[in-house]
UniProtKB/TrEMBL annotation:
UniProt entry keywords in alphabetical sequence: Arsenical resistance
Source species: Deinococcus ruber
Secretion signal, residue range per the UniProt entry: none
Cited SMART domains: LMWPc
Protein name: Arsenate reductase
Domain Phosphotyrosine protein phosphatase I: 1-132
Length: 155
């Protein structure tokens, strides 16, 4: 099964989602081909790498890539968008593609505590996705809004 996690810049939320989904799929013995991408590519945020490493998930080999950089950008079984911009600008996928939207706030410019809260939120969501895929159940329904990360800002 080929899974895409799509964000705006493929720099944090989608990278963390890819890391968590790989982790949970592996723990469940689930064979998934997981990739993340953005509507545009930038770089993987060092804060994302740092907070995931705190829990033993290594993002250091992951790179930021645009959807158009992928060899088969429309041939996914499951597409999960994690930002409103990605959901808005995503291309049309074939009818067989299961699409879900699980938005998360962008933690850029925030404290490491905001990044850790994002890590927690994405972990919960990707664990639910992996469980559903492992048991053949429907994926959790899409959400309209992101859960707040809190009001802590760098400054």
């Amino acid at each position: 099964m080929l899974v895409l996690i799509l964000c705006t810049h493929n720099s944090a939320r989608s990278q963390m989602g890819e890391g968590w989904l790989r982790y949970h799929a592996s723990a469940l013995g689930l064979k998934l081909d997981i990739v993340s991408a953005g509507t545009a590519a930038t770089r993987v945020q060092p804060e994302a790498v740092q907070v995931m490493a705190e829990l033993g998930i290594d993002l250091t080999l992951q790179t930021s890539k645009a959807l158009s950089d992928l060899p088969r950008p429309l041939e996914f079984d499951v597409v999960i968008t994690v930002s409103a911009t990605a959901a808005e600008h995503a291309p049309e996928f074939p009818p067989h593609t299961v699409r879900r939207h699980y938005p998360f706030e962008d933690p850029s410019g925030g404290t490491l505590d905001r990044w850790r809260e994002l890590r927690r939120q994405i972990n919960v969501q990707m664990q639910q996705v992996a469980q559903a895929l492992a048991t053949g159940q429907a994926l959790p329904p899409s959400r309209a809004h992101a859960e707040p990360l809190g009001m802590v800002k760098a400054g």
